[in-house]
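Extended Data, record Ribonuclease PH
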Amino acid sequence: MRPSGRNLSEMRAVSIETGVTKHAEGSCMIRMGDTHVLCTATIEDRVPPFIKGSGLGWVTAEYGMLPRSTTSRMRREAATGKQGGRTVEIQRLIGRSLRAGVDRVALGERQITVDCDVIQADGGTRCASITGGWVALRLAVNKLMKAGDVISDPLIAPVAAVSCGIYAGQAVLDLDYPEDSEAGVDGNFILRGDGQLIEVQMSAEGATFSRQQMTDLMDLANQGTKDLFDMQLQATT
């Protein structure tokens, strides 16, 4: 039995609320169980120096956790003068995951920055950030298309992510914190809506895993992201 009482293949309750901030070109609040992430997308008529003049667009991301998003207060990273390694790793993951769903030629020479701020954490914050980040990105691109600033849709397919792992010897979908902290195997699966894999992060936390178990986790991830793709499209159409 899972701590939450969910079935092995059952996700936490998911909701996506759009238009939650006044100024951002695209925004949403995604809630996956008790993990809540605010995602905003900002369009800028500039690109990083290394692609300037190439005609290619760029999508990047920043990620952070509010001080009381966890059970005890964390210091703001700004107070320490630098970002932690975990933060840098996660925001790079979000950025490259979202870029995998973008036709950068069609986007044109502009940058969209997706900010993901964790309001409340209960496991799976990077997966929620990627899933919600795509919704914010989609809404921002919709504004570009409506204004006629892009000729064709630069978004190839939705991008979503979900965690899966081996908990108490069983393959389970969408780990919350009690499961994540005790999982023998932990994995994050990032997929595109056309079935293409973007990235798989898997590690043996307390036990090794077999090829069959990896396949079982992949099957769960396919099931979970299919539901997320449906929710993303409902939120943005």
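Summary. The longest strand covers residues 35-44.
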